[in-house]
Amino acid sequence: MSKNTHENKASSPKEVVISLYQAQEKIYPRRIFGYFARWRWVMIWITQLFFYGVPWLEWGQRQALLFDLNAKRFYIFKLVLYPQDLIYLTVILIIAALSLFLFTAVAGRLWCGYACPQTVYTEMFLWVEREIEGDRAKRMKLDAASMSFEKFARKLTKHVIWLSLAAWTGFTFVGYFTPIRELATDIMFFDLSSWGVFWVVFYSVATYGNAGFIREQVCKYMCPYARFQSAMFDEDTLMVTYDEARGEPRGAGSRKLNEAKTETLGACIDCSLCVQVCPTGIDIRDGLQYECIGCGLCADVCNHVMDKVSEPRGLIQYTTQNAMDHQWTRREMFKRILRPRVLIYSSLLSLLMIGLLTSLWLRTPFKVDVVRDRSVLARLVEGGMLQNVYRLQIMNATENLHRYQLKVGGLENAKVGFTGSDQHALIAVEPAQARWIVVNIDVPDGSLATGKHKIQFEIEEMDTQATLIERSIFLVPR
């Protein structure tokens, strides 16, 4: 082999194999106590007491909060909503979205850090894991050890509790859409429908997988909110921030002269505890990152470290970029909260909430749908009368039995008749129920010109004198 050949081989670049998939390293968050950690657990207790407890509350003879898809009714304590009330659900969703925008503009990802179901259940599952397997170092040592009876017992206990909590969560979630007491009875006697089994199992497995295994990957890769949150941030948004000017250059000799570099070190002692407590495993010292959920645990642990090294707290803190850059006081920082973006969100949110509450207050406690009988447009009946047939659905949106009186206007000499009913004057409808009635409208043949004639149905609720008017047409054929 020639000398040139050896030189070409020596100078040619080495082959590098690049993996298109990098295995996700498991994150072992360290336990931490502090101001933000306490608030996280307060929110966990509040949200879960509501979630697990509300389906068991009763209002009268029914579940207080129930989105009954089979009956096509939503029960929200005293309020009963029908599919025709979809506008209310739309407004509520818009209010929720605007609230999220407002909170994000003011204080960053409060929802993600304290109330998001993914965050809440991950923290609950982590608590179970810590209690059974120990804190960070013990869990890492246990996972690295070979299988033993102790390891098997601990892992089995953890997963049994996880599965139990996930199953209860799936059952409770389905209990918002089907009466939860009936659901519990059906499960106890193995009488649950196939669809019921599917949804309970589906949400149980989703909770078990997301909170037990996927965890921070949902926040990093699956949640869209993390991707567009920067559009709602500005330099006056409160967020978890590292004071780089005070902390750098970091090193073990906090605020002491670094003899090798002949420079004064910053307050950060580079202990990496802020990384160890982070649920998503990021380093807040690298600046704002979309993976940060704003939980503030890094601020808690950093404050403990600063206390130990006799340094002032606040190296990592909940503040704004402007406050950090200009060294503002808390009072100066909070003055910047009422800025145009926040005022716009607040105004829109207030208007929507006032409009929603006003609409619900003025809402008529019953609804009526008028449907023409399409099988026969018009027909001649006894006595030389021309008849049109209508089907009326009266929906009682209250918790009491009500009676309704029907009147017809818009046509002279019109006579009203009911098919299959002897109650011509009053129509009774059970609480939170709907009733279809068939109404015949007769006019003397030849008294109206050929074509369409406007007609209106006036339905009056006899107890409250609330009245609804629904319009339709009377057809006279050629």
Judged by helices, strands and strand pairing, the structural class is alpha+beta
Percentage of β-strand residues: 15-25%
The largest sheet, given as strand count, sense and whether it forms a barrel, is: 5 strands, antiparallel
Principal-axes shape call: elongated
Number of helical segments with 4 or more residues? 17
Report on the structure:
There is one protein chain. Helix 3 (86-107) runs antiparallel to helix 17, helix 5 runs antiparallel to helix 7 (149-174) and helix 7 (149-174) crosses helix 9 (194-214). 23% of the residues are buried. The strands form six sheets. Strands 10, 11, 12, 14 and 16 form a five-stranded antiparallel beta sheet that branches. This protein has two domains: 27-363, no CATH class; 366-476, Immunoglobulin-like (Sandwich), CATH 2.60.40. It contains 17 helices and 18 strands. With 478 residues, it is of the alpha+beta class. The radius of gyration is 33 Å and the shape is elongated. A hairpin with a 2-residue loop joins strand 1 (58-59) and strand 2. Residues 6-12 have low confidence and may be disordered. It starts with a helix and ends with a strand.
